[in-house]
Structures are given as C-alpha cells and as structure tokens.
C-alpha cells in the first residue's frame, strides 16, 4: 500500500534530536521510540532544520539546491524519514483535520496529545486524522466515583467529542478526587457534577453531529461504554445482566474499578469475539464451586458507607482505563481485550490475566473453545488461626 505524498513535511516534534557523532543523529530519548539515522553529511544535517512544516516539497527542493545537495536527494531523504516513522505532515489528516486546525485554542489544548499520537502513527498526517476522529466519537461512562469521574474527564480532555456520564445519588465526601468530582460538589447530584467537569475538561465544543433517526435508540452511536461502578465488587465480579443490552447491541465495553486494595482494569469486551462478564463468572465458578454463594453474600450484605478506595490506586486505575480506551478508539490493537489488569497497594505492580471465552456462555465468543481454560486469577489460600 502506497501512502499519500507528504505535502508539508515536519520532523515529529515529539522526538528530541541529538548527535551521537559528526555523522549520526539519534531521534528520541527513551528506547521505546528512539531511532538512529546515519551516515549524514553536514549539508544534510543542516537541511533537517528546514523540516518544520512551513515549507512544501517544491520549496524544500529549491532550498536543497541552494545548499549544494544533489537532485533527488530531498526525495530520497524524505522517503527514508517517512519509512522510519520520523516524518509527519503539518497539513495532513483530511477535511476534519483541516477544520480542527482552524480552532486555534482547541488545537493548543490538544497539541501534546497530538505529539504523543504521532509516535504511534507512522504515516504522515495519521496522528492528526485520529485526533480529529476522536471529536466525532461518543463514549459513555457508567459510574461517577473516584474512578469513573476521572476517566470521563480524561477522555473529554483528550478530545473525545461526547462523553456521557450516568450515575445516581449525591456526591459524598469520599467521592472527591483530583481530576474528578471537586470538594465543592459534595451534596450535589453525581451525574450533574460529572457532566459539568466533562464540559470543563473538554477543549472546546465538538462539531455538531446529525441527530439519530426516529427509529434509532441512540445506542448505535456509542463507540465504547466504560463500566466504572463505585462499588468495586461490580467491576471485579460484574453481574452479567448489567451488560446484556450492550452485548445485544454489539457495543464494546470496558470494566474498571477498585475493590478493597486492588485496582481492576478489563476485560474489554468485544461482543461475540472476546470474553464477557458471564464468561468471567462461569470460569471462576468452574474452578471454585463456592464462588456463586460468596458473591450472593457479598452483594446482599450491608452497604458500606465509605468503601475502601485508595486515592493513588483509583487514579492509577482511571489513567490506565482511559489510556486503553483511547488506544481502542484510535484503532490500536486493544491491550485488554479478553485480558484483566490488576494492581494492589502498596506495590502498584500491574499484572495481566487472560479471560477466556466460556464454551457454555450465551455471548457466543466461546463457540470455538475446546474445553474450559482457566484464568490466571487464583483463589485465596486457606489458613487457620493459631
């Protein structure tokens, strides 16, 4: 596949440049994205400073001739830089990107996110196209506690055009979190406050979208639902019934929350393809026959006034959930599809465990599974008091 020509080349500003010697330049500091290019003569190294996105290719060719570079050198260099993923296009991304560039204040808010996305988008202009595409997306967050409210504000701040937040009740003092529900909102309705922080976090108003048709229930426009209940048990062991309509509508959904001292992110459920909440329940019940009985006791027990939810842990969970959500929305291979990530205080070491589709689950994701495959979760060890 041949990529579209770069009209206004720019070296990706996210990568710092440094000379390892007189003829070798390194792009990037951290190993994850660092590249070394060489050998490079003095004239070519000087030419690199012209790749700032303000000149088209014809003008760059003229500048190269004045610098004594041979014919064809610019095109070869641009080709090498593009193949290495080091080149962007300051005018690329399509019509939606062009419209977004006209909103100066919005672009300034999104510029850091754009630079980060450029590291993951080898094609020139692709990062800008993804930023513009986020503006047309709709995400729903179920839950406006320490995890859900922060996730919603991060997604809105990262440029997702519409972030809906659903929750009931009123803000309690223990719901307050930096980046989430503020202290002055205690006593207000959770959903009302969460929607306000979403508006405050968003970089400008997204472009208007066409209204759903009269026979539409509006759900088809959802790109993703994040289930972040204030009760962490509903994220760790979600009730299958709460996601039935999402499975039926084919809407991807991601679980996130904190249970006691453990943070949980995932699985990301791709209906009919990856494991769902019922798969998770069935797998655990297959390995531990007491699991349904224990869940029934935990769910029917007295409600805790202030459930354990370490602030640093909930912030970490919200960040990871938002990061995985954005990666999915941007079209990256989802890191948590059929996977659960957990971390516990005080170590905060994230571990992943596969969640396999269950052959007997009605979601249909396990139709090709031969036999039961357990998850990496382990039951607690039995102990006796001495």
Question: What's a quick, concise take on this entry?
Answer:
The chain is built from 13 helices and twelve strands.
Give the helix/strand layout.
Blueprint: E1 9-11, E2 17-21, E3 24-27, E4 35-37, H1 42-47, H2 57-66, H3 73-83, E5 87-89, H4 95-101, H5 104-118, H6 126-134, E6 138-142, H7 148-157, E7 162-166, H8 190-201, E8 224-227, H9 233-236, H10 244-249, E9 253-259, E10 262-269, H11 277-287, H12 291-300, H13 311-329, E11 339-344, E12 351-354
Parallel strand pairs: 6-7, 6-8, 8-9
Antiparallel strand pairs: 1-5, 2-3, 3-4, 9-10, 10-11, 11-12
How does this structure look, described?
It is a single chain. 34% of the residues lie in helices and 15% in strands. The protein is an alpha/beta fold and 386 residues long. The strands form 3 sheets. It has a 7-stranded mixed β-sheet. A 3-stranded antiparallel β-sheet has the order 2-3-4, with no helix packed on it. Strands 1-5 form a two-stranded antiparallel sheet. Helix 5 (104-118) packs across helix 6 (126-134) and helix 7 (148-157) packs parallel to helix 8. The radius of gyration is 25 Å and the shape is elongated. It starts with 8 loop residues before the first strand and ends in a 32-residue tail after the last strand. Residues 210-220, 369-376 and 381-386 have low confidence and may be disordered.
């Amino acid at each position: 596949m041949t990529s579209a020509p770069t009209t206004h080349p720019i070296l990706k500003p996210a990568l710092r440049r440094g000379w390892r010697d007189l003829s070798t330049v390194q792009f990037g500091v951290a190993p994850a994205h660092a590249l070394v290019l060489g050998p490079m003569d003095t004239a070519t190294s000087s030419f690199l400073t012209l790749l700032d996105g303000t000149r088209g290719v014809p003008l760059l060719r003229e500048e190269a001739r004045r610098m004594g570079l041979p014919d064809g050198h610019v095109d070869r260099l641009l080709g090498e830089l593009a193949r290495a993923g080091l080149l962007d296009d300051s005018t690329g991304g399509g019509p939606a990107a062009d419209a977004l560039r006209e909103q100066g204040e919005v672009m300034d808010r999104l510029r850091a996110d754009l630079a980060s996305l450029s590291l993951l988008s080898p094609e020139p202009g692709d990062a800008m196209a993804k930023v513009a595409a986020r503006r047309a997306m709709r995400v729903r967050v179920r839950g406006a506690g320490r995890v859900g409210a922060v996730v919603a504000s991060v997604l809105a701040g990262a440029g997702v055009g519409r972030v809906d937040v659903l929750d009931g009740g009123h803000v309690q003092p223990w719901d307050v979190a930096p980046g989430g529900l503020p202290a002055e909102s205690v006593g207000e309705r959770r959903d009302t406050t969460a929607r306000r922080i979403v508006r405050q976090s968003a970089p400008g108003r997204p472009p208007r979208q066409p209204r759903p048709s009269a026979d539409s229930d509006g759900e088809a426009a959802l790109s993703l639902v994040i289930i972040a209940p204030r009760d962490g048990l509903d994220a760790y062991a979600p009730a299958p019934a709460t996601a039935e309509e999402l499975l039926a509508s084919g809407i991807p959904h991601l679980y996130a929350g904190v249970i006691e001292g453990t943070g949980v992110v995932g699985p990301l459920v791709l209906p009919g393809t990856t494991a769902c909440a019922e798969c998770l329940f069935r797998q655990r019940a297959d390995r531990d026959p007491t699991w349904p009985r224990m869940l029934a006791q935990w769910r029917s027990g007295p409600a805790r006034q202030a459930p354990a939810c370490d602030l640093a842990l909930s912030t970490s969970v919200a960040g990871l959930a938002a990061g995985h959500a954005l990666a999915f929305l941007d079209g990256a291979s989802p890191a948590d599809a059929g996977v659960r990530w957990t971390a516990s205080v005080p170590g905060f070491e994230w571990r992943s465990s596969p969640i396999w589709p269950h052959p007997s689950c009605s979601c249909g994701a396990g139709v090709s599974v031969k036999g039961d495959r357990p998850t990496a979760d382990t039951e607690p060890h039995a102990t006796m008091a001495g």
